[in-house]
Amino acid sequence: MKVISSICPGCSIGCGLYLAESKDGEANKMRVLHRKNAAVNEGKLCKFGTQLHTYYEREALNDTVDGSEVEQKEAIKEAKGRLKGMKPDELAFVALPGTVTNEEIVSLVALASEFGCENISFGLERFFRGIPEEARYIIEKGLPFSEVEKASRIILLFVDPFVHYPLLARRVLKAKKKGAKVVEVSFAKNERGIADETVLVEPVGLERIKEKKDLFEDSLIIGELTPYTDLQFFELMLWLNASTSSRLFLLKPFLNSTGAFLPGGNSKRRKDLFEIIDGIERGEIKALYLLETDLAGAMLGDERVTKTVSKLDLLIEQNAFRTPLSSTADITISSEPFFMKRGTIVNIEGRVLEVGGQSEKGLQITESMGKGRTYEEVHEEVKRKLGLAEISEFELAVKRKERSFEMAEPKVEIEERKGGEGYFLWYKTNPFFWNNGIQSKNFVEISPAAMRKLGLFRGDEVVIVQGERKGRMGFKISELPDYLILSESKMSIKPFEGLIAKVEMRRRDCETTQEKINC
Amino acid sequence: MAEEEWEPKILAFCCNWCSYAGADAAGMERRQVPPTIRVIRVMCSGRIDPAFVLMGLLEGADAVLVTGCHIGDCHYVNANNKTRNRYEFLKEFVDELGLEPDRLWLRWISASEGALFADMVREVTEKIKKIGPSPLRRDWKK
Amino acid sequence: MSRCYLAWAKDERIREKGADGGFVTATLVSALETGFIDIALVVAKKSVYEGIPVLTSNPEVVKECAGSLHGAPINLTKYVVEYAAEKRIGLPTKPCDARGIIEQAKRRQVNLDNIFMIGLNCGGTLHPLRMREMAADFYGLDPDSVVKEEIKEGKIFLVSKEAGGKEKETAIKIDELEQKGYGRRDACKSCVTKIPTSSDLACGNWGVPKGEEKKTFVEVLTAKGEAILKNAIDSGYVCIEEAPGEGIEMRRKIEAGMQKLAESWKERIDEVNALSRSGRFDFYVDALKNCIHCGACKEVCPVCACEKEAKCLDMNDERDSYAISMYNVLRIFHLMDSCIHCGQCEDVCPVDIPLTLIQRRFSERMQRHLGYTPGMSVDEKPPLYETELRWNAESMMK
Ligand SMILES: Cc1cc2nc3c(=O)[nH]c(=O)nc-3n(C[C@H](O)[C@H](O)[C@H](O)COP(=O)(O)OP(=O)(O)OC[C@H]3O[C@@H](n4cnc5c(N)ncnc54)[C@H](O)[C@@H]3O)c2cc1C
Ligand code: SF4
Ligand code: FES
After folding, report:
1. For range C90-103, the mean pLDDT
2. β-strands B63-68, B104-108: how paired?
3. Concatenated DSSP letters for A496-514?
4. Cβ distance C8 to C239 under 8 Å?
5. Could you tell me the pTM of the whole model?
6. CA–CA distance, A3 with C53 (Å, rounded to integer)
7. Helix or strand holding residue C259 (H, E)
8. Does the CB of B141 have a partner CB in chain A at under 8 Å?
9. Does domain A130-251 have CATH number 3.40.630.190?
10. Among A419, A506, A410, A490, which Cα is nearest to A455's?
11. pLDDT tens-digit series, residues A246-271
12. Among 3.40.50.720, 3.10.120.10, 2.40.40.20, 1.10.860.10, what is the CATH number of A423-518?
């Protein structure tokens, strides 16, 4: 048994934990243990964290060129050569920073600039566009959880802490114990009743939040920023923040989202993830380098990504594990699983955390194509960019300064949401949602009214339909508006912006003969 | 609409050989058994995992009755001794949880004791009517 | 069989590094070197706030791990089950480690014949992060400068490294700290098993006469304990002398005093006691509704011997909208006779459910009713699985 300290890559909180590795005959066995002195989480973990070993037990990626296995050196050489053969504008690099260290980010940015390429995405670039310079800090930096505990008024803006970011829940509960008032603004009331006051909003009525502006005075607004966040809604969040005396704290799904924009720097000319995908579709981008990124897994409506990617002349994937795109990649380069990495990340609170491993494999892949620096050199650059002398999990190294800014009142009108019968499906994101490989829930939540209308009984399943797309799920009843369906799992239903989709729902009839007999 | 009188829902686990036959006898003898009861037949009271009882309560039963053959009469040697043992745990559990002790019952009823069965159901129904619906019951808004 | 000694390691380095006489370390080292055991499970110090369990057959590693860590509230039971169920193993056991191992033996997960439990008396552990806060708020120290901690004579001593490399010792009474909400974990404050009587040996500093520090008070509790002690003496690793009568008496008195204190803590931290029946119901529903079903509490539970095929997992369907989930209900129910109140579940609960209190409230009344204390003797089976009643007919009649 060997116990190592590690960080959970499930979300931007960055919980500390131990991984215990042992030999079970020939095979390696892994267990997750609780690291009680972890500054971030006291060793407490959500369901994703407690099952992290299954995340690491996925199939490893090999080094291949055009489908045949090669030495890693060969794959790297080939990758470099083929990338060189492209025009800078035809290249794009994507790293959703879930398992990417600061060092790897700095290295990737350097590599891209070696090729003269500006198309790098860490998943959230489009939110920087068109917002005041002074508001950037809201995207870049979060807040320490001690600030949540100290807050006297908390607004949960479409965030159910128990589901979206489970380790945030205890901080909100602590604030409540100290007398904080918790208000939720959401499509549905929180099942656990964490809020003292609920403001229900309809998916078509986001505009109406503006009328409730006064609610946001003197509060800490907790929201979420994902690649799927609706742009208009994002502007609404900023506006609410700008026009009241509040603070806005946005959580993010990828562990190193904070690090990605700090040591990574952020050039305004960088492309956004969706722009890159559009660029591929239009044939402008011909080569894509995916760094530790399961693109198909992180996106909804898988098939678009797969189809789009097939238009590329060159797809290079650097990852520890196979992804749905691995089989179509021209070159695959294997890196080490996250826990083995030597390097640092910055969590949403601004703590710089050491990942805990020893391996520099992933870093050396990009460095050997680029500047060829050592770990120490890159790490020094990270420290310089963060303004750090020493690294301690108890230090809130990356602090943010609240700034005031002006924001025009945004219009929030989402055409696709309007009109027609049917239901709204709301995806409630969570670590399982963004990290493929471990199963989460196989049911959706529906209202008692919907259950009665569809004549559902315990154990029945529903079919959720969106044009050609269909999803089959069990159900649970919750106190929801009649038209709402909640899902914590991904389905093949594609949301329009904001993780909401207009769908039909019916009871799943028994299809096979055997099922009919059982019915 | 006039408030209808609230009828408790009572869940009874009956063993195939004694208490279920007892319930049957109550019917055969045309005894009045309140319609509040839902019977689940099991082969032996020893089959009643405490989890079943707890699930019954969570499902919203206003009371759960555990019944079986008299001690010494169990058709599977001594399985109802286990029932008695488990019941003691359930009783402490229900009490500590803050449910009224009357929401959990253990009765030994033989195949010939139809009257006893009917009396028991009546007694439980009356008691439950007095203490009201179980706080574990969840009624969904129409 | 019970006999008491003062014992210490012959090797001066072990004795120096040891919490008291280095006896525990020397005994494990000798058992490894003589092949008396295959493997040892000890706790490595990363800092005063972090101890990591180490499974090793290398005596040098064991020597490195000498000393007590009060800020490492780990329970070693599951490590034995998971990694060494088939081996002859020796390990230090706090009362809750020993009790956990005995419960696992009852459930046939381990074979006690192969486990040598070198018991440690335990006055309690501190949560490492609370200890950091305590160092900063009460001791006025930079938490990272603390290099040593010790609990003796009712005080917590913190030794910090000052700027010039000099060491500074600061001590504050535990009582004073605990009045202000710091100090030991709730589970430890209200734990009444202070001497691990279900281990093979019980070691500690209670009963070591003043002026004789650097000796460990050892009580021999079983034949296995006697064997491992004899092995250590015969192989020349430890020295022993008869414990003086007044030492034995002093130890007994301190234990009784600690137990009384624990009973009073139980009362003080039990917020449910004052509630009515329906208040109690609301309290439990309110607390447990926050559960996110991460499963951590079951995973770390030193008593639970179910793996993936557990009833509490199998019968829990997240599609149910129960006021309390089947998982929580069954975990509480199944632990009513067997909970040893170690508090591991609460330590790891991501939504801070007061599980120690909840489990204790349900289990203590049941255990009192049964006249049963779990974790004490492998010969007493868990009463829930017995056919016959454990209590007397009279209490049944009431
Ligand atoms: C948390 C704690 C509280 C204690 N409280 C008391 C008390 O109130 N009264 C009393 O008389 N004695 C107490 N002891 C026991 C005492 O501190 C010594 O451990 C004992 O006297 C043996 O001394 P030694 O020098 O022979 O042991 P050592 O040779 O120093 O060996 C101690 C062994 O314990 C292991 N260990 C260290 N920390 C832990 C831990 N947290 N959990 C499990 N194992 C651990 C070490 O790895 C080492 O193997 C306590 C011990 C601990 C760990
Ligand atoms: S540790 Fe807490 S949240 Fe996790 S299953 Fe246990 S009670 Fe539920
Ligand atoms: S057969 Fe009736 S109780 Fe066992």
Report:
1. 98
2. parallel
3. BTTTEEEEEEEEPPP-SHH
4. yes
5. 0.94
6. 8
7. helix C245-268
8. yes
9. no
10. A506
11. 999 999 999 999 999 887 666 667 88
12. 2.40.40.20
Other beta carbons less than 10 A from residue C198's beta carbon: 25
**Considering only CB atoms, which chain A residues are within 8 Å of C300?**
34
Query: Interface partners of C (3+ CB pairs, < 8 Å)?
Result: A, B
Residue of A nearest to C80 (CA): A1
Backbone dihedral angles phi then psi of residue C115, each to the nearest 5 degrees? -115, 125
Give the Å distances, CA to CA, from A181 to A155, A218, A260. 9, 11, 33
Query: Nearest-CA neighbor of C78 among C228, C224, C315, C297?
Result: C297
Q: Residues A105-130: pLDDT tens digits?
A: 999 999 999 999 989 999 999 898 88
Record the tokens describing residue A267, joined without a space.
């050039």
User: Scanning every residue of chain A, which has its alpha carbon at the shortest distance from the alpha carbon of B140?
Assistant: A448
Q: What order do you get walking across the sheet with A331-334 strand by strand?
A: A68-69, A64-65, A331-334, A314-319, A287-291, A91-94, A120-121
Residue labelled with tokens 């007694």? B123
| CB of C83 less than 8 A from some CB of A | yes
Asked if C146 and C48 touch (Cβ cutoff 8 Å), the reply is: yes
B68 lines ligand 3 (CB under 6 A): yes
Q: What is the 3-state secondary structure (H, E, C) of B36-105?
A: CEEEEEECCHHHCCHHHHHHHHHHCCCEEEEEECCCCCCCCCCHHHHHHHHHHHHHHHHHHHCCCHHHEE
Secondary structure (3-state) at A267 = coil
pLDDT at A414: 66
- C70 interfacial to chain A (CB closer than 8 Å): no
Contact between chains at C52 and A18 (C-beta distance less than 8 A): yes
**Cα nearest neighbour of A473 on chain C:** C319
What is the mean pLDDT of the segment spanning A29-48? 95
- Kindly state if the Cβ of B47 falls inside 6 Å of ligand 3: no
- State CA A342 to chain mean position distance: 22
Q: Which pLDDT score is estimated for B77?
A: 92
ipTM for the complex?
Answer: 0.94
CATH architecture of the domain A64-123+257-373 equals: 3-Layer(aba) Sandwich (3.40)
**B contact chains, 3+ CB pairs < 8 A:** A, C
Report the separation in Å between the CA atom of C67 and the middle of ligand 1, taken as the mean of its atom positions. Answer: 6
Reduce the secondary structure of A20-70 to three states and give it as a string.
EEEEECCEEEEEEECCCCCCCCCCCCCHHHHCHHHHHCCCECCCEECCEEC
CA atoms within a 13 Å half-sphere pointing along the CA-CB vector of A514: 0
User: Is residue B1 over pLDDT 50?
Assistant: no
Question: Is the CATH number of domain B10-131 3.30.70?
Answer: no
> What is the 8-class DSSP label of residue C274?
T
Closest ligand to C30 CA? Answer: 1
Separation between Cα atoms, residue C94 and residue A109, nearest integer Å: 52
* Ligand 3 geometric centre to CA of A352 (Å): 64
State the pLDDT at residue A517: 66
Extract the tokens encoding A337. 């699983």
Query: Across the interface, do A174 and C350 touch by the CB < 8 Å criterion?
Result: no
* Predicted local distance difference test score (pLDDT) of residue A422: 87
Asked if A463 contacts A506 with a C-beta cutoff of 8 angstroms, the reply is: yes
Pick from C13, C41, C63, C68 the residue to mutate for probing ligand 1's pocket: most ligand atoms within 8 Å of its CB.
C68
Going along chain C from its start, the domains and CATH numbers come out as 3-122+192-263 (no CATH), 128-183 (3.10.450), 266-390 (no CATH)
Q: Are A435 and C279 in contact (CB under 8 A)?
A: no
Whether the Cβ atoms of residue C327 and residue C291 lie closer than 8 Å to each other: yes
The Cα of A177 is separated from the nearest Cα of chain B by a number of Å equal to: 23
CA dihedral (C359, C360, C365, C370) positive or negative: positive
The answer, for C137 touching chain A at a CB cutoff of 8 Å, is: no
